[in-house]
């Protein structure tokens, strides 16, 4: 049975095979959770021949969530969070994210951190972000954790300063734009981490190559002027960036927390 579900999913997602959609429908009607979750994903994302229909996606995910499927719980939470296909209901969305997060869905924990942070419940946000730290594909959770640690923690503590740098660097290496910009700023100011204008320029140059960093591009030259970075430091930083980036850097796209997922992702 599991093999038939995987084959049908693959034919639908990769080949857009109309027969695969029909096969998944038949499996979903018998209560097969994986088929219900896959159909929800297809209708939420408009994977041909399915057309975008968040209401129908929500119905499939609701059926799977009732059977305890964590991915369906997360995806249904996204719909209630956004009010797509269902009435907007943030308390219900948070309940679903909590259930999914307790079953190993890291994206749910990251969203819970964002929601707690938005209502200034920083202790709860830190708890959720901390749970995300081992998950490599959620670098922005590391960044948010670091920024909150700087806001609420004792920055005279060497351990806290080291923790901030470690998590920001891990996030920046995974191409999180906010981590990259924060490292540039901290290096320029000598706050939390040692002052190093070449290192500040290094991260500015990395941002220039990061297609997700458009919101920062127009301000990068102003950054250099604001911190009065001299030509020697600029050239040193640019050379550091050139050596690190190479000719064709592998830029890891940011995770979009507002989109549904099809399956669990490895923490590695």
Automatic annotation (TrEMBL):
Gene3D superfamilies to which the protein is assigned, alphabetical: Tetratricopeptide repeat domain (1.25.40.10)
InterPro entries tied to this protein: Sel1-like, Sel1_AlgK, TPR-like_helical_dom_sf
SMART domains, per the entry: SEL1
SUPFAM superfamilies per UniProt: HCP-like
Highest taxon, organism lineage: Bacteria
Record-given protein name: TPR repeat protein
Species of origin: Fluviicoccus keumensis
């Amino acid at each position: 049975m599991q093999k038939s579900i995987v084959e049908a999913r693959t034919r639908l997602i990769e080949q857009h095979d109309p027969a695969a959609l029909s096969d998944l429908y038949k499996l979903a009607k018998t209560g097969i959770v994986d088929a219900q979750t896959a159909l929800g994903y297809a209708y939420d994302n408009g994977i041909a021949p399915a057309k975008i229909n968040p209401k129908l996606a929500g119905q499939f995910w609701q059926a799977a969530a009732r059977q305890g499927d964590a991915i369906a719980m997360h995806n249904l939470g996204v719909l209630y969070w956004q009010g797509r296909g269902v009435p907007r209901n943030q308390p219900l969305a948070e309940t679903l994210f909590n259930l999914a997060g307790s079953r190993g869905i890291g994206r749910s924990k990251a969203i819970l951190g964002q929601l707690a942070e938005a209502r200034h419940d920083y202790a709860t946000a830190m708890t959720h972000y901390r749970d995300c730290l081992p998950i490599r594909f959620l670098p922005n959770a590391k960044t948010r954790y670091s920024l909150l640690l700087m806001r609420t923690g004792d920055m005279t503590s060497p351990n806290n300063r080291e923790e901030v740098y470690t998590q920001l660097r891990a996030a920046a290496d995974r191409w999180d734009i906010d981590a990259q910009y924060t490292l540039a700023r901290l290096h320029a100011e000598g706050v939390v981490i040692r002052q190093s204008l070449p290192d500040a320029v290094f991260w500015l140059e990395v941002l220039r190559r990061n297609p997700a960093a458009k919101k920062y591009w127009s301000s990068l030259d102003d950054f250099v002027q604001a911190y009065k970075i001299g030509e020697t430091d600029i050239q040193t930083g640019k050379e550091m960036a050139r050596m690190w980036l190479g000719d064709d850097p592998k830029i890891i796209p940011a995770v979009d927390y507002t989109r549904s997922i099809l399956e669990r992702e490895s923490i590695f």
